[in-house]
Structure prediction request, 186 residues.
Amino acid sequence: MSEPASISTGIALRYATAVFDLAQEGKAIKAIETDLSALSDAMASSGDFNALIHSPIYSRDEQGAAITALAKKMKLSPIMANTLALMATKRRLFVLPQLVACLRAIIADDKGEVTADVTSATALIKAQADKLAKTLKAQMGKDVTINATVDESLIGGLVVKVGSKMIDTSIRSKLNSLQNAMKEVG
Prediction:
């Protein structure tokens, strides 16, 4: 991990831990999970929102006012709204993507869950996702949430990432291995 990325993750982890502790005290974990989904959707769909959290041209006051208005419009919980306002005053909004990821990981760990990032050549149907989740649960000993994406360049098969483990059964990977083996021969 590069140094700036690890610094951002460290900052985000401190905020995420504080938010989780506050939410646990106030029994607001469900509200925080809803907030995380809303923030993820906003980051994925709004270029303006991403510009607000990443651009240094906005002053602290401008970011604070915008985040307060957005939190109200998005109906974020008071804990999350106050955290975002604090992050704006400290010029730390740039770590929001890492905050969301860290907070999701902390909540999942607390629930005894793990998230598996699954990339497939075609969209998984519900039965396939359920069977994969069941198989991974047997391996990991924890409930598994599937985060599925599609990458047609895989040709077929799956790439599954759970924590630091990765299983690549894609045809693209097998073709690359075969190509490397052929290069060694000739």
